[in-house]
Amino acid sequence: MSPAPFPYKLVATDLDGTLLRGDDTVSERTREALVAVTAAGAAHIIVTGRAVPWTRSVLDDLGYKGIAVCGQGAQVYDAGAHRLLTSVTLDRQLAGLALSKLEAEVGPLALAASRDGVDGDVLFGPGYRVQEGLPALYLEDTAQVWTAPLNKLYIQHPELDDDALVKVARETVGSLVDIVMAGPGIVEILPLGLTKATGLSLAARRLGVKAAETIAFGDMPNDIPMFGWAAHGVAMANAHAELKAVADEVTSSNEEDGIAVVLERLLGAA
Fold first, then answer.
1. Helices and strands counted in the chain (H then E)
2. For 35-59, how does the pLDDT look when each residue is reduced to its tens digit (9 = 90+)?
3. d(CA 230, CA 46)
4. What is each CA distance from 141 to 55, 71, 100, 215, in whole angstroms?
5. Which segments of 107-195 does DSSP mark as H helices, in order?
6. Where are the beta strands (DSSP E) in 157-222?
7. What is the pTM (predicted TM-score) of this model?
8. DSSP class of residue 131?
């Protein structure tokens, strides 16, 4: 009897805290598992909150030539051709209104912004803590943030932790914009209705793959819509409690090859 085929046609993986280890590398074991999955006929697609400029170096290191979903679903990017297939931008007037309302509620926020485009800069203002190793341009005057199209805004509060900031932001301006937590210290303002599932569904359609044929891996609350869209959602051991609560299963951490653990099991059953 011939073995059963690999049960999914699409493997969707988040980057930070999921595919990447803490040193921003992908382990050899995980690389080999992904190669085996693609050899079995499934596609691998990266779905990340990072905009293209913060994702491209990782894709190049992986030798990744397919479609990637970047910017929290705002950008569908052809890595092989180095071009955007789709891009959704944040309404800057609406975002400015939301920011004003939120600051009226919680006080001044530290601000950063991701400009649209394959080469769009990330700009950050006074007090904003940028993740180490990621390129960004400092702006003394944050008014310059608004002078070009944006994918998203990043906000930090001097006292509120991420969960508290997300909660108050959603309560205050959730009817104007979407608020997501994408990682430690990474709270984002996005266009209303935009999620990773938005971009993933567009990318999957291009690949001719359905939600029912997709397995997704993630670690943060911004992965919840992706889990809702995919047939099977796998949270990493290091995942946020909100994501674990909706996951179909929990695997090992990103440092312990959690993606490979699941894929090897599924390949062994195939």
1. 8, 14
2. 999 999 999 999 999 999 999 988 9
3. 14
4. 27, 24, 16, 43
5. 162-173
6. 177-183, 186-191, 214-218
7. 0.93
8. P
